[in-house]
Amino acid sequence: MRFSGLRVIKEGLTGNKGWSAHWRDASPKDAYDVVIIGGGGHGLSTAYYLAKEHGITNVAVLEKGYLGGGNVGRNTTIVRANYFLPGNSEFYSHSLKLWEGLEEDLNYNVMHSQRGQIVLFHSDGQRDAAIRRGNAMRNQGDDAELLSVAQLRRMVPYLDYDQARFPIYGGLLQRRAGTARHDAVAWGYARGASDRGVDLIQNCEVTGIDVENGKVTGVQTSRGTIRTKKVAMITAGRSSQTAAMAGMRLPIESHVLQAFVTEGLKPCIDHVISFGMGHFYISQSDKGGLVFGGDLDMYASYAARGNLPLVEHVMEAGMTLMPMIGQAKVLRSWGGIMDMSPDGSPIIDKTHIDGLYLNCGWCYGGFKAVPGSGHCMAHLVATGTPHKAAARLRLDRFKTGFGLMDEEGTGAQHNLH
Amino acid sequence: MRITCPICGERDRREFYYSGHALALDRPTEDAGSEAWDDYVHNRDNPCGETRDLWYHEMGCGAWVVVTRNTATHEVIATKLAEEASS
Ligand SMILES: Cc1cc2nc3c(=O)[nH]c(=O)nc-3n(C[C@H](O)[C@H](O)[C@H](O)COP(=O)(O)OP(=O)(O)OC[C@H]3O[C@@H](n4cnc5c(N)ncnc54)[C@H](O)[C@@H]3O)c2cc1C
Ligand SMILES: [Zn+2]
Hints:
Subcellular location (chain A): Cytoplasm
Enzyme class (chain A): oxidoreductase
CATH architecture of chain B: 2-Layer Sandwich
Helix content of chain B: under 10%
Bound molecules: flavin-adenine dinucleotide, zinc ion
Keywords (chain A): Cytoplasm, FAD, Flavoprotein, FMN, Nucleotide-binding, Oxidoreductase
Oligomer: heterodimer
Number of domains of chain B: 1
Low-confidence stretches of chain A: none
Cofactor (chain A): FAD; FMN
Number of strands of chain A: 19
Helix content of chain A: 25-40%
EC number (chain A): 1.5.3.24
Strand content of chain B: 35-45%
Number of strands of chain B: 6
Radius of gyration of chain B: 14 Å
CATH class of chain B: Alpha Beta
Radius of gyration of chain A: 21 Å
Mean pLDDT of chain B: 93
Shape of chain A: globular
C-alpha cells in the first residue's frame, strides 16, 4: 500500500475503507540469513537497509513485545547533528542527511520537521564552547549559527533573559535540526522492510543465542528455535541481558529517562530549545502539546517509569527558563530504559563471536540515530566491514582508550552521560 | 526512593550521590592488565532485578553505602557501610 495525495483524497471521500495493514504480522520460519533481535527503531531500520541496500531479504526481526513499543515510541523526538568529536560528528551528520530524504525514500509521512534547535549558553565559557562546537559542526558539513541575545530576543521572546542566576548570553542554532513523529518512523521502516520480504515477528522473545565453535548457529525464542548464521543484537535498554545470552558483559548500565507532555496549546514554541545550565529541552508537537524532558533519574533502573525527584528537577528547570509554561497542565509522563555507555557514545561493531553483531549504547540520543544506525549496521552485517560513517563506533575503544567519544567530558561513569 | 544510611537512618534519595554498581569495591591490582582494568572500569552485569550499588551520603554524614536494591521495582532491600561490606 503506497501513499499519495490522490489516494488520501480518495480515501477521505470514501470513508477511509481502502487502507490496509502497514506490514505483515509474520510467524517465524525455521531459518533465516539474518536474525535481528529487537523491533525498535534501530532494528527496523537495519532490516530495511539490509533489504534495500544489500538485497538481503531473508531476514527476521524478533520483537518480544510489539513493534515500536520500546524507546522509539517514548522519546522526545529531537533530531539533530550537533556533535563535536570525531566518530560522533560524521556519524550523526550521516544520519541527518538520511533523515532529509527519509519520507521520500519510505513513502511515509514521518512528520520530519526541521524547525531548528537552539542550545542556549549562559556564561563566557559556555559561549566559547558553543563557538567551538559550531565551527566543528560546519567543518563536518552541517549548519550552525551563533545567535546574540538581541537576535534571540526577537526569535524567542518568552525566555527569562534577565534572571540573576542563569542570564542568557546567546545560543547556538542548527536550522536543520528539529523533530519527527517517532511512531511513524518505526511504522515507516516496518512497512518498508516488510514490503521487501522481511518477516516482522512480534510477541517473540529471544531467550538464548546458540554458539558452536565460536560461531553463531541460531537463537532460542519463546516461539521456538530459529537457525541462522548472523544475529544482530539491537535491544537498546536490554542490551546487557541480550549480550549475556552469548556470554558477554557490556560496558552498559541501564537507566530510566523520563519525558512529559502537556495539554494541547496553540502554537507558541516554534523551535526545539535546550537550556544550557540545567538539562532541559522542549518543543511543541504538531498536536499542540509541549513535549519536554531533562536528566536521567541517575541510578541504574529498569522501571519504565520514573521517580519524583527528577520530575521536580525538570519542572524547576523549565520554569527557570520559560516561566510562561507554568500555566500549562502536564497530561502525561513516562520513562524509557536507556543503554548508557561510559563515554556516552554508541557502539556498532562485530563481537568476538563469528556472526554476532552488536548495536547499543545509544544513551538518550538514539532517536536521531535511527536512519544512520540502521544504515551502518546493515552495511556491517552484510559486508563484514564497518561503514565509514560508523568506523569509530567500536567496542574495543574502552579497553584501548583510543577513540573514546566523551562529548561532555564527564568521564567513565555510565550515569553521567 | 528512600535510602537508609547505616549512620543517619532513612533519608531522601536526593541526599545521596550514586556511583554505579558496587563492583567498584573489587579494584584490580595495578599490574592486573588491560582486560581486568577495562572490565573493572567499564563493563557491568547490569541486572534487571537485584543489584548492589554504591551511594555516597553527600548531604549527610559523608559515608559510602552499599545499597542492595531491585532495579525493576526500585525497592531498597538492604544497606551497609561500604567499609564493612566485603565485595
Ligand atoms: C524519555 C526519552 C526521551 C528521549 N529523547 C530523545 C530525543 O529527543 N532524541 C534522540 O535522538 N533520542 C532520544 N531518546 C533516546 C532514543 O529514544 C533511544 O536511544 C532509541 O530509541 C533506542 O533505540 P531503539 O529505538 O531501537 O530502541 P527500542 O525502541 O527500545 O527497541 C529495542 C527493542 O528490543 C526489544 N527487545 C529487548 N529484548 C528483547 C529480546 N530478548 N527479544 C526480543 N526483543 C527484545 C524491546 O522490546 C524493544 O522493542 C530518548 C529516550 C527516552 C526514553
Ligand atoms: Zn549518613
